[in-house]
Amino acid sequence: MPIHNPFGAQSTLKTKAGEFAYYRLGSLKDAGVADIDKLPFSIKILLESCLRNLDEFEVSSDDVRRVANWSPKGNELREVPFKVARVILQDFTGVPCVVDLAAMRSAMSRAGGNPQKINPLVPVDLVIDHSVQVDEYANSLALLHNTEREFERNRERYEFLKWGQKAFNNFSVVPPSTGIVHQVNLEYLAKVVWTNADPKGGPLPVAYPDTLVGTDSHTTMINGLGVVGWGVGGIEAEACMLGQPMYLVTPDVVGFKLTGKLPEGSTATDLVLVVTQLLRKFGVVEKFVEFYGDGLSHMSLADRATIANMAPEYGATIGFFPVDEQTLAYLRQTGRSADHIDLVERYSKEQGLWRQDKVEPTFTQTLELDLSTVRPSMAGPKRPQDRVDLHSVRVNFKDSFKEALAKNAAAAATPALATESGGVATATPASLVPDGAVVIAAITSCTNTSNPSVMLAAGLLAKKAVERGLKVPHYVKTSLAPGSRVVTDYFDKAGLTPYLDALGFNTVGYGCTTCIGNSGPLPEWVSKEIESHDIVAASVLSGNRNFEGRINPHVKANYLASPPLVVAYAIAGNMDIDVSSQPLGTGTDGQLVYLRDVWPTQAEVSATMSSCIDAVMFKKQYSNVGEKSEAWNAIPVKGGELFDWDRASTYVQEPPFFTTLAPEPSPIAPIHGAKVLVLVGDSVTTDHISPAGNIKKDSPAGKYLLDNGVPVMDFNQYGARRGADQVMTRGTFANIRLKNLLVPGTEGGITKYLPTGDVMPIYDASLKYKAANTPLLVIAGKDYGMGSSRDWAAKGTFLLGVKAVIAESFERIHRSNLVGMGVLPLVFSKGEGRDKLGLTGEETYEIVGLDDSLKPTQRLQVIAIAPDGKRTEFTTVCRIDTPVELDYYRNGGILQTVLRRILKNG
Predict the structure, then answer these.
(1) What's this model's pTM, rounded to 2 decimal places?
(2) Strands (E), 836-901
(3) Regarding the domain with residue range 377-406+432-622, which homologous superfamily does it belong to in the CATH classification?
(4) Does domain 86-373 have CATH number 3.40.50.11500?
């Protein structure tokens, strides 16, 4: 229970919306704890959370003091408990979170408890935006038909989510075809300042900063609105949903000073590509970035959100913009109430969270950018941080694919060959799709579709291009996927929709589409031309990621660009052109048309924005948003307070986490007779561990699906089957690039079953070990579990029967996720490791000293006995770091801890 009035901080705030209690940060200065005036704004928000939630168990007074005394010169490497106001999910990553809640309800019912007590304890919103694909395009029925196919493909998952929407309190679903999760969050869900009933029973509701975590890395887009939030894995999200704190090491904060204004011809997209390149080079991994300087006063909220969105691409935890007048202006524009806007302003000013040009916080490090130096650019062809000035893109493309282009050019120049009959064979005809062809031109992704300035610039460019008579080559797959229906409204009001449609940029869906790889198939004839001639084809998209193989398997070069440049390259049709100086095409009057002829000015864009966007649009589109879709409303709901699990389902299955849950946890006990399932070296990522991508028919997961009557064509991807533990467990450690050193010289998800020496799939070996009641280990090198926070990297490890992971070092989030699943993380003593100790992985292991007296970071002895009887003893550090984590481990995981707590409290 939070302490009633810690540090004498509880105060009253009077606003037009009424009176609110709040926890005044200035009280810490009054009490002599710390001078907080110069703290970065983002640190102040972490501090407020600690102060408000202080209970001396999950959050201690020492936590408050440590955060209040944050130093730009460095801080203790201790973790801060951070309780968020809410959680946001998207459908791919959100389904397993809801599956676990449904399973907790089933377990509660079996234990004789009240299933209705299993609900998220903080507000949770799930936006369905990752499932729509661009199957049909460039016609007026594309949106209708793509939406129909989306519902057909995902019917089973949507039935489950529809049940969750009805069954759970504090849980809302934004139906398909509404918009992209981050744009919906920005335009509708975010409050900047949250209010709620006082959990301590006080008479006034409490006001506090709107904070969140989300199961999508680009959750950071909300940082542009002055809201602290970032992407996490499903286990962390579930913990936060159930009221648990998440833990992060006290972060360094890099200050990024922005001055000046963007010059004519440059867009917010150009700016974000510059910022990404600078910060990636500077090095901000696991750091906070906070923007400041007078340049912010001239920067719209949408431009800020564009920069904040790409924090994962520049490596930061967040890219934060504090609250100021631009924040209030955006809240007005998007239809928030006058009373709420007054609350945001009053609270931010009273708490010292209001940005001013001349008041600068103290940062760990700083860097600076003059906005007037930003030039038009793109990024590619393989990484978002590889920015290229627009005039150099042609050279960049040709240099990047020099060998392939030269090979194709030589093949095209090869003379015709004589036939056996003495005649002359017809030369192989030139491809109908040239090298460098832009076969995909997509206005897509949250990064840019949230920003009216670049979207309207695309519409205005299309208008000018059509009026000059320009067209798009027939091999270009064009698509427009607005981030919300408001975009369609302002395109229509501005009269720009017909011009976009004329160039093939018809709306194909309201979702992530091409940016996440849902570009759909290319026309069959285009694919055949690319394959038969080995064409170096390209995509140009207004997205945030362009990694190899992500956009489409037939596309080798992928370039990120602003929406107007996407339209320009669609018209040009090829990367082998300098669009800054060469013509895009020839107009109906026979005159060459250049980019400068159709590029809209900032004044034109600004005037269009002023005339076609108003708050009424946002209120109309988001009014009763959860019930507007007829297709969504028509989906039947299976079950009431309990989900009606279908044993035949290969998409949604009741996970086994709680099926044998006892009222009390078993005592913590030593691990005896353990065998190594997986032995790996350094830098093994969660992509190596977690199931991802296509499901191969000869893999354990593929065989399972075939055995259950699923044809190969309906396998779908692991991502769509994250709610099915039988599929996901079989896919754990199944990455084709995994190097399991128990089987040296091989790659893929195989291991040696040590009792017999047979080599077999890791999943099959785990079943044999499980039948013999043999506990399992993973032994690893440095940085084990680096990369994205994938919940199934920990869930799958647990379900394979792994009891402990011994590594030289862990990536922070994966270590936390292992504890959250009841798997013990151990670290070799400094200077030791598998090689130094001479471990082969074929030993039998004992982990001694494990009992109910276990303490955080306790040293534990490990004994390894080789097949020849050689005994090796070494000491490890138990990386259960806090009393709360110890409680999780004792109970077998976060969810088990919460479930038992609810059962115990009635």
Answers:
(1) 0.87
(2) 844-848, 859-865, 871-878
(3) Aconitase, domain 3 (3.30.499.10)
(4) no
